[in-house]
Model the fold of this input.
Amino acid sequence: MADKRDYYEVLGIQKGASEDEIKSAFRKMAMKYHPDRNPDNKEAEEKFKEVNEAYSILSDPDKKAKYDRFGFAGVDPNAGFGGGGEGFGGFGGFGGQGFGGFEDIFNMFTGGGFGGGGAYSSNYNGPVEGADIQQRMDISFEEAVFGAKKKIKLTKNVECASCHGKGAKDGTSMHTCPSCGGRGQVETVQQTILGSMRSVRTCSTCRGTGQVIDTPCPTCKGTGKVRKTVELTVDIPAGVGGGQNSPVLTLRGQGEPGRNGGAPGDLYIVLNIKPHSTFGRKGDDLYTTLSINFTQAALGDEVSIKGLRENISCKIPAGTQPDTTLRLRGKGVKNSRTGRTGDMYVQVKLVVPTNLTEGQKDLLRAFGDPPVNEQPSASSKKKSWSDKVKDFFD
Ligand SMILES: [Zn+2]
Ligand SMILES: [Zn+2]
Done:
């Protein structure tokens, strides 16, 4: 207290300065000596307290009048700013109502508190995860069923190899961003009729990194990232999608690089499975149709179905009715994820012969006498299978 400086001198203004001049001088000084901007600087901390004390007096018309008349003796010598986060002490007592005062100063720095290093300011500049990328990939029906390894070309941001993502030219230094004091964000206070409105935004000078570069890396122009087309091998698991049209594969860590040591994002590959000309799929089951003739249906037969990769033997029981669905166990999709294998359902289509020879016609006439009047069974079980398959192909 012995060598206290004159309050006007502390704020760098003349005696008789207007309210606005006092206010703006205070803002300037408070910003300059704010502990967040001057970490571990004892001198700045003292100056900051001094500035606040000066403003606490000069912003209060009553105190100011007393100070103008009587100097320090006219104001409470203990009214000084307490310093530290909660040290407002008696501040509100005289500043609360009038111009400036507690609210105003508080708004100016809320979030961090006066003590410096508030929650938002110290954490903001921490690791930031990289962005995720989504890419489409066409695969065939067979690739979805049997699995495949497919190469994919992907253009994305990758860490610049020249500067290792730092953005600074090799050998040059980086320093704390002067615009935000290294916090990566800046706040502005606007006076509105509702009072002081504080808003926080990413610092445009350093783009939120808190560091500025003396000489930007020529390769990435200081961004730390470069666009690059990379080739990846995507492992498509057998049985992928379960018959869905657009299953998604996740490749962890293949997205854009993170910032400040943050993890990279993920790559999502949306698979577009092309339909097959003769096979359908539901879950791990395959569906197809088989055309047989009248004789095969009546007498039974063993035929070979052209499968996805190999021929599959299929027994047609004697007396098979049109649209009967045959089930071939274990001939469906081998799902690598669940370990189970589906079945194949074969819907029998009866082909009625045309262009018969006279001899064949005679044989059929003989067969049809007496006529076969038996109506096809309307049993619900058969209906439900054929409906299901029909629904699937519709
Ligand atoms: Zn670079
Ligand atoms: Zn900045």
Q: What stands out?
A: The pocket of zinc ion (ligand 1) is lined by residues 160, 162-163, 167, 217, 219-220, 224 (CB under 6 Å). The first strand starts at residue 133 and ends at 139.
